[in-house]
Amino acid sequence: MGKPTNFITFRVNDGEKEILRNYCEKLGRTQTDVLRELIRNLQKENITLD
């Protein structure tokens, strides 16, 4: 994959941010890495929207 050139910004509440922070800390991964993996897994699920 090429070098990332896009940004996505969205709002979360304090509790959601803390969940993500804790998850990343336990895995030793960055938030960006975890969110990129989530997006890639959506593609792998091969979900089609009609």
UniProtKB/TrEMBL annotation:
SUPFAM superfamilies with a match to the protein in the record: Ribbon-helix-helix (SSF47598)
Superkingdom of origin: Bacteria
Identification of the protein by name: CopG family transcriptional regulator
Family annotation (InterPro entries): Ribbon_hlx_hlx (IPR010985)
Native source organism of the sequence: Brasilonema bromeliae SPC951
